[in-house]
Amino acid sequence: MAEPSQLSQLIESFVDSSRSPTQQAASLDKIASLVKNDVLTMEGLVREMEMYLTTTDNIIRARGILLLAEVLTCLGTKPLTNATLHSLIGFFTDRLADWKALRGALVGCLALMRRKSSAGVVTSTDAKAVAQSFLQNLQVQSLGQHDRKLCFELLECLLECYPNTVAPLGDELIYGICEAIDSEKDPQCLMLTFHIVEVLVQLFPDPSGPLASFAADLFEILSCYFPIHFTHDVYYNDGKILLMLWAPKGEDLDIKRDDLSRALMLAFSSTPVFEPFAIPLLLEKLSSSLQSAKLDSLKYLSSCTLKYGSERIAKHARAIWLSIKDALYNSLQEPTLSFTSESLDGLGFQENEIAKEALMLLQQVIMQNNVKGLQILATFPGDVSPISISEFENILITFMSIITENFKKTLLWRLALRALVNIGSFIDRYHESEKILSYMGVVVEKIILLVSLDDFTMPFPLKLEAISGIGTSGLNYMLNIVQGLEEAIFANLSEIYVHGNLKSAEITIRLLECYSNKVLPWIRENGGFEEVLLRFPVNIWKQIESCVDFSVQVLEKELLDAMMTAMKHAVAFCSEESQNKIIQKAYNVLSSSTSFPLKESMALTIPFQLEDLQLTQKIDNLSCRDEWILSLFASVVIAVCPQTHIPNVKVILHLFITTLLKGHVPAAQALGSMVNKFGKKSIGSEISNDCTLEEALDIVLQLKLWNYQDTGALLRCSGMSNGSGMGHTDLCLGVANDRLPQIHAIAGLSWIGKGLLLRGHDKVKDVTMIFLECILSNGKTDALPLKQHSLENSCEQDLHASVMKCAADAFHVLMSDSEVCLNRKFHAIIRPLYKQRFFSTMMPILQPLIMKSDSSLSRSMLYRASAHIICETPLVAILGEAKKLIPILLDCLSMLNKDTQDKDTDTLYSLLLVLSGILTDKNGLACFAPVAFHQTVFASSGILSAGWKEAVVDNAHLVINCLTGLIAYPHMMLVRETAVQCLVAMSDLPHARIYPMRIQVLKAISKALDDPRRAVRQEAVRCRQAWASTASRSLHF
């Protein structure tokens, strides 16, 4: 064993900071040699150094700890016992908290943890203690460069040598590493930090694991270094200082820029979790003016593309390709570049780093995306394209063969179609004239042939998807597609008109749906198709005009509906000038029909005389052709702008009034559109058959054409002297056994009323009073608050229940949004907040009528009308009147629940959603949307809104009685599910109010637990738990 005096001198020589580095190194070597040669044991050394390791003198303690650590570094292969290792690593772990002696502690931990297994290693438990002490005690970025480097080496060692030990630290470990590496500037340290990130992400491969929540922060730290450059200056980016990588002058660093760049690239591509952040950054930097940044971006993209996988890169393939093209364009435009006969990979480029990297990335993307690869080649810029025109056409042919033959491979088929659309868009945008001609011949013409051929091997819906998709890739393509579609439509219509071909009818319906839903919206959005929009409806009218007699015997209703929809959309998208041409053509065809002898003399006097109404007698026996002409004419009227001139308006009004009495709904909708769009009192028009809104309403309300008998003649009946409205008398004088004209009249009035309501006209009150008179026909009508006249003649017998129901359902037409007419798409005049105003006007009328009604039938119809109004009113307006509305709302629900004949499940469900909105609204600002509301209203905790809690509390027993009755509703699962959800919300009411009803609710819920639908059973379990807990809630007060 070494003499104590000699050992003490060696220790003192190292610890003494005044000694030269040479002397200190010599002392260290001698001490290490003594231990290595077993002259001195490790335990003996520690005992001899005890004073130096524990002194309060910071300098001596730091030097002593560093000496012990350096000795251990020299003894990496010297076997040590487990007890000795445990004691030493424990000492250095504790010293990590001693910032004055931190360097020795770091060196000691590293020396022990880097030992080979043959010489004895630190246990997992001790390694975990080192990691925890590091994370708790070290602020890495506050340390000097050398100490930071040691910290990073220790972190790297922990991650590489003890991965299973540190992985359970999870969020704490990731956060600590983020904090340690943030804002690092030294190149040597950065090499370590980049590698630490690379190893760290491999420790947490699960995309939804601990790394996911830190991915954005971790990548933000890395992104500050891209692209790598050394500097002594400060750079700014959007007002923020960029990190500087210092390269000390005069210091020969082994680390080069390329080394750092490669290390950063490996960190970028280390995990697919970085994909949402890395790819956009790299694409952005690819447009940099710095050549080195472009080159690095391409290299990084290649690496990331390979590591992230095709699924994640697929969404960026188009953006990557566009960036590659830009990079190639710019690189080829550099003055230093020239073309030679020798090529790079056969593309004719001189050696160029950016072009080379771009092509390598292109190859990578092509290999990952088969279809996209061909698409990329096809959209290569013409002047640098790696393929000839013939090869370009071969690519298009390949895609077209997939479209026509491989339609059973859904994913491949859709990828091929998307590729064709993208190719078409690209060559159209960049005016690649030669390729456009090839595309027209190979793709567009063949796609058009698909719908005109009788080959039914390929499903027709796929044909239409393909033709509409290809059309959207460019204006010129769409012009050809539209022409091909129209030719196919008119060819099939001819087959239907002449032969009544069933297959042609089915094809035409789908063609018209494609034209209405896909082609016309794209045309409207992109503009420049006025001629096309005008051509289609005009040709429809020309074809009908040329077919003197036809009979559609198959799918007549479906075909006519599709025709009307296409007609309305085409007319609506036209300019006012084109609309005038279309409606004039339509009027000429209408007036040429023998069933519609429209005479301008008929429009000169009001009221009409019976002898002027000869067309009425012909309405009963309309031919199929005349039915189509009338319906399509009504479609044109529905779609035109308010400024468009309608010929012979007064006669047209009378024609529509007459035909609606026969149940012609398009005529009623056209009437509603006309009164909605008419101008007000005269602007001085001199055209005899022009008509203002007031004149149109006089025709509708004064003529009293609602007394219709089964003889087909319209009889005039004495009306009210003031001429301001139309009474219930006119509706109920018809033959009792022929109720259809009365129902049709009310249905027609509902659309007229809707047109008035949308524009906010006062005459809507007259219309609604007619509906209420019908509802109250077997009760008392003298209670109507807005009644402006008394009935001159009472009905001899009450109206039938079906007529009353039609009058109640008219309120649904008034308030609901319509897709077929009277909407903004068809140029309707819509006043803001019209639903709220109607709700505020009608509910004060309906509530007292319900209370005073002596007839159970009338009362149920009043409830039905109220339900329609409440369902269609925005929730914000309902909430303001919640206290008054809850009783009537509950009565409506009970009535609809008990109605076993009509089973109006939609109204019941919509009304129940209103109740759920009241129960769960939090701030009184919610808006009610019946379709989406069911999916979102119970996403919250179900706590009752404080604003409406009082109204619900006061009626708690009524609400619960109603909801428990709906739990067993047999006709609709959503009603049962929503009722149970409402009961869950009710469980949050004050304990004293709901406890008496606890047994009732639990008993009802027990039945829902056996419901055949799983969703209801799940909600029932929640409800039972919520209500079962009410028994113990009193203990908390």
Fold and architecture overview:
With 1037 residues, this protein is mainly α. It has a domain at 917-1036. A two-stranded antiparallel ribbon has the order 1-2. A hairpin with a 2-residue loop joins β1 and β2 (240-241). α40 (856-872) packs across α42 (882-898). The longest helix is centred in the middle third of the chain and has 25 residues, at 475-499. The radius of gyration is 42 Å and the shape is elongated. The C terminus is likely disordered. Keywords: DNA damage, DNA repair, Nucleus, Repeat.
Strand order of the largest sheet: 1-2
Provide the low-confidence segments as ranges: 232-244, 246-252, 335-351, 603-615, 681-689, 705-737, 779-783, 786-798, 924-947, 1033-1037
The global form is elongated
Name the quaternary structure: single chain
How large a portion of the residues is in β-strands, by DSSP E? Answer: under 5%
The total count of helices amounts to 50
Give the termini separation: 79 Å
How is the topology of this model organized?
Elements: H1 4-15, H2 21-36, H3 42-48, H4 50-54, H5 58-74, H6 82-95, H7 102-113, H8 124-137, H9 145-161, H10 163-166, H11 171-181, H12 187-203, H13 215-223, E1 236-237, E2 240-241, H14 257-268, H15 275-285, H16 291-308, H17 310-314, H18 317-332, H19 353-368, H20 370-378, H21 389-405, H22 410-429, H23 433-452, H24 460-471, H25 475-499, H26 502-526, H27 530-546, H28 556-572, H29 576-592, H30 616-619, H31 624-639, H32 649-660, H33 665-677, H34 693-702, H35 728-732, H36 740-759, H37 764-775, H38 801-815, H39 834-852, H40 856-872, H41 875-880, H42 882-898, H43 905-920, H44 930-936, H45 946-954, H46 956-966, H47 973-986, H48 991-994, H49 998-1008, H50 1014-1028
Antiparallel strand pairs: 1-2
